[in-house]
TrEMBL record:
PANTHER family: ECF RNA POLYMERASE SIGMA FACTOR SIGI-RELATED, SIGMA 19 FACTOR. This is RNA polymerase sigma-70 factor (ECF subfamily). Residues 115-165 form the RNA polymerase sigma factor 70 region 4 type domain. Gene3D superfamilies: 1.10.1740.10, 3.10.450.50, Winged helix-like DNA-binding domain superfamily/Winged helix DNA-binding domain.
Length: 303
């Protein structure tokens, strides 16, 4: 083995070690797993080329900056496509109950819920990148300045604006209480049974439901507002499901959610937010390209 081959092997080992964090950064900035993974793979090639010119001493620091810059470029390009998207655009959900290659893991901070990912979509690309790098991954402003191409002072202003938007847009939530657990169970039972009265008992009066189907059937083209409308929408969706559908509770971006399976295929993934025992937000991802294809769930009846 040549010295260069040994060096590349060492680089690859270090890059593999930090890859979950890098994918987490790219996903938080872009909102889709496949594009995040593409960014990280592309930056590995850039790392190998850069190291050949001059040895990279701190692989993780180099990679974080490179991945963040590339993710920002991808986000800027993606925003044009998302403005033309049919119906609401939701991020791709990170579903915990999937079997995947360890190299494709995503390290995401506990506070980055699906509802927060939705709020991040309202930020401008530079604001979003700044917020993610500083608030989630702890990068100092001078380093972020090199990523977004602004001065440290300008980056601080971006952070202030982003923080205000996130604070205003993120729904209030509470987690971990017995009341919370009862609400989740009641919601899942009511959805499974198509029980409108049961749904109304756990939905906040001002609940908002957003569904992303990319223009396909089974998704509302606009957000559904209010408990009665949201409840009736969910009951209507339930009535259209075939008899062999299954509701599978799981974790979506670290928070409560469920998937609906028809046979082995995932029909949609739902994430919801709770506050004081009531559902305040429901997000349903129906677009096939955003749904997990390798869910590992117990068979009907357990076992």
């Amino acid at each position: 083995m040549t010295a260069r081959a040994d060096r590349l092997a060492d680089l690859a080992a270090e890059y593999t070690r930090v890859r979950p964090r890098l994918v987490g950064i790219a996903y938080s900035v872009i909102g889709t797993v496949a594009e995040a993974q593409d960014v990280v793979s592309d930056c590995w090639l850039r790392l190998a080329e850069a190291d050949e010119r001059q040895a990279v001493r701190d692989v993780e620091a180099w990679a974080v900056v490179a991945v963040a810059r590339r993710a920002l470029d991808v986000l800027r390009s993606a925003r044009v496509r998302r403005e033309e998207y049919v119906g609401p655009w939701l991020p791709e959900p990170l579903v915990e109950a999937v079997s995947q290659d360890p190299a494709d893991r995503v390290t995401l901070a506990d506070e980055v819920s699906f509802a927060l990912m939705v709020v991040l979509e309202t930020l401008r690309p530079a604001e979003r990148t700044t917020w993610v790098l500083h608030e989630v991954f702890g990068m100092p402003f001078p380093e972020i300045a090199g990523v977004v191409g602004r001065s440290p002072a300008a980056v601080r202003q971006l952070a202030v604006r982003a923080r205000a938007h996130v604070a205003a847009g993120t729904p209030r939530t509470d987690v971990g209480s017995a009341e919370h657990g009862r609400a989740v169970g009641a919601f899942l039972r009511a959805v499974g049974q198509g029980d409108l009265r049961g749904l109304l008992a756990v939905l906040d009066p001002e609940v908002v439901l957003t569904s992303d189907g990319g223009g396909g059937p089974g998704a509302a083209r606009r957000p559904v507002l209010g408990a009665d409308r949201v409840g009736r929408f969910l009951v209507g969706v339930r009535r259209k499901m075939p008899a062999d559908q299954r509701i599978v509770p799981l974790t979506v971006n670290g928070g409560p959610g469920f998937a609906v399976l028809i046979g082995a295929a995932t029909r949609f993934v739902c994430s919801f937010s709770l506050h004081k025992g009531r559902i305040t937000r429901v997000d349903i991802v129906v677009a096939p390209a955003k749904l997990p294809r390798d869910l590992v769930v117990p068979p009907p009846g357990g076992g």
